[in-house]
Design brief:
CATH topology of chain B: Non-ribosomal Peptide Synthetase Peptidyl Carrier Protein, Chain A
Largest sheet of chain B: none
CATH architecture of chain B: Orthogonal Bundle
CATH superfamily of the largest domain in chain A: Butyryl-CoA Dehydrogenase, subunit A, domain 3
Largest sheet of chain A: 8 strands, mixed
Largest interface: A-B, 30 and 24 residues
CATH architecture of the largest domain in chain A: Up-down Bundle
Order of helices and strands of chain B: HHH
Distance between the termini of chain B: 22 Å
Distance between the termini of chain A: 37 Å
Number of domains of chain A: 3
Helix content of chain B: 40-55%
Radius of gyration of chain A: 21 Å
CATH topology of the largest domain in chain A: Butyryl-CoA Dehydrogenase, subunit A, domain 3
Shape of chain B: globular
Shape of chain A: globular
CATH class of the largest domain in chain A: Mainly Alpha
Number of helices of chain A: 11
Order of helices and strands of chain A: HHHHHHEEEEEEEEHEEHHHH
Number of strands of chain B: 0
Helix content of chain A: 40-55%
CATH superfamily of chain B: ACP-like
Structural class of chain A: alpha+beta
Strand content of chain B: under 5%
Number of strands of chain A: 10
Strand content of chain A: 15-25%
Number of helices of chain B: 3
Radius of gyration of chain B: 13 Å
Structural class of chain B: mainly alpha
Oligomer: heterodimer
Chain lengths: 383, 94
Amino acid sequence: MQYLLTEQQAARQKEFKAFVSENVLPFAEEWDREQKIPECAISKLTKSGYLGCSLPLQYGGQGWDTVTFGLLNEALGRGSSSLTGVLTVQTMVSKALLKWGSPEQIQKWIPLLAKGEIIGAFALTEPEAGSDIQSLVTEFTQSDDDFLVLHGTKKWITTGQFASLFLVFGKLGDRSLACLVPRETPGLEVEPIHDLMGFRAAGLAKLVFNNVKVPTANIVGKPGFALSHVAPVGLHYGRISTACSALGLLRGCFEESVAWASTRKIGNQTVGDLGMIRSLIAEMGTALEAGTFLCHSACRAADESLPEAFEKAVMAKYFTSRAAVRSASDAVQIRGAAGCHGSSPVARFYRDAKIMEIIEGTTQIHQHLLGGMFLRKARCSAH
Amino acid sequence: MNSTYTAEASKVRETVTSFLQSSISIANLNDDDHLFESGIVNSLFAVQLMTFLEKNFAIEIGMDDLDIENFKSVNATTAFVMRKKDSQGAGATN
């Protein structure tokens, strides 16, 4: 796919691959086993400017385009889905705030997020509201003109264990609301979530808000528009990040499988000489090519501010996450017993891939959106 | 309202209508049909409409523009775009 990239994008792609080889690949298994990414690893992301890679230069970001952002997510995903999760939610919070924040909020928080001095978390999902975000029950009530009181629970919040700033979604009466809540605000309790099947080092947490007092100046956007306008901007970049991260995981499955199939002997042949193994590798390699084009298309559409960018991101995430699940399963199968052990990264890929089908919009929600889109387009063409 | 303004507003209305007809499944869309009524649009529609308006009319939609009255129908959206273009001194439509 090199011909799709500019010279600068191609150079960055090489840089990202080198960064991951040195700083992620040797440690990803340990992070998964310990269910924790050490601070020094996140610090390396920060020092490289990666956490603010898509944020404007004027705020201390790198000002990179979405294609480059996608390439970074792919490279990181090849190494560790958990680490990519940090970049995913940092970008979700930052982009939503950049678009809908007040000038004061932007001046206060965006430089800190861009430079990685604080980590953000996107607090949308609740114990009883995942796909159905209209059913949020986290409640804001007006205390006085200057303050709101926040009460409720959020769950499965990526980086919740160590984030300093939460973008929290809830309802003010019957109107949706998004609000910035710093970690140290009294009444906020963070409960780590451990023992996930995958994404184990992404720092997931449950957040409990017990009558937390937040300034009305922390409202992002306006009441009534949090779920229609604020969340979708964040989720758009979440989908792009997850699509590209899943593509990186898929690439890992492919590379591990080709390496194994090329060298593992079976009689006088290698495993790769067997037709049934070749068919699995053919599926994997073709999915990798197709996923690369879908991710690139989604990133380009975002860079060109096209309205169809949102649906392209849904399509890319839908495709690569499902392909990652299939490919990880096949990669374990190709490897045999060794693929079921932690000594092989494909075992971790298998567990992480399943998470990718669920976060940032489940496969089924995306099928609903995309099916509706294709039918609508067909109806419009017929008229 | 002078004829230049009326002609420009008609062009904006035509462009907005064309986009909406390709984005939502509603036969015979009328200029005052409420776009955000239940079941007509999906969860991506609001941001797609925002992105379309920003790109096609060279306007920037910010926090202060978040008002359902600005986007609820073809006529409302057209009026909103014309107000933004006037206040921003934006260029002609694509």
